[in-house]
Amino acid sequence: MRLFIGLGICCLIAAVMQLSATGAEKEASKKVLRHVVMFGFKTTSSDEDVQTVVDAFRKLPSEIPEIAAFEFGTNNSPEGLNDGLTHCFLVSFDSEADRETYLPHPAHKAFVEVLKPHLEKVVVIDYWADK
């Protein structure tokens, strides 16, 4: 009888552990790592120069599979609090490991080389968000 009860308790513990692991996986899948990048460009950079930078950034999701989602836009806030930052890019990742692959990726490094001659100011912030 003790053996039977002991086996029952072991099975119950295993089932609870499985549910906990599944719950943790579900909880992790509810999060997304956001990489927010905001640029201000040099006054010497032409509209065409800025568009070249934007186009280069927009190509990254097709070159780096770890990018889960991508969007961008230009500032249109009426508040005047953008402090010279005009373009915002939102790059999303499923994990910190994916972001770690992205940052030194050759395509990202090539993009930075396109950006550098035109960059006046940059702000980058990363955060975990609920999906």
TrEMBL record:
It comes from the Bacteria. Keywords: Signal. Residues 1-21 form the signal peptide. Residues 33-127 form the Stress-response A/B barrel domain. SMART domains: Dabb. Homodimer. PANTHER family: PTHR33178, STRESS-RESPONSE A_B BARREL DOMAIN-CONTAINING PROTEIN. This is Dabb family protein.
